[in-house]
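Suppose a colleague, Dr. K., hands you the sequence of a protein chain of 74 amino acids and asks what its three-dimensional shape might be. Before reaching for any lab equipment, you can write down a predicted structure in token form. Begin with the sequence itself:
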Amino acid sequence: MRPIFVRVIRVLDWPTYDGWLWIDGYELAGNGDAVARRSLFVMPAGLIWSDPPAPAARRPTTRTPVRRGPVKVG
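The predicted structure, expressed as tokens, is then:
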């Protein structure tokens, strides 16, 4: 077994055993990107809440200036 990180979307209101619940969420890759949607049957007492992985640093986009001036029509 290996643990997975999950971003919880909601707790489902499905009938279950006492002390258990169904959750919907996204499994996260090491860089924090969602890779799969999951419905999990879990015991909340067994969950480990950790800080979410830091999002990957994004490079600033550079814009190419638009040439402006008179336009020939016709």
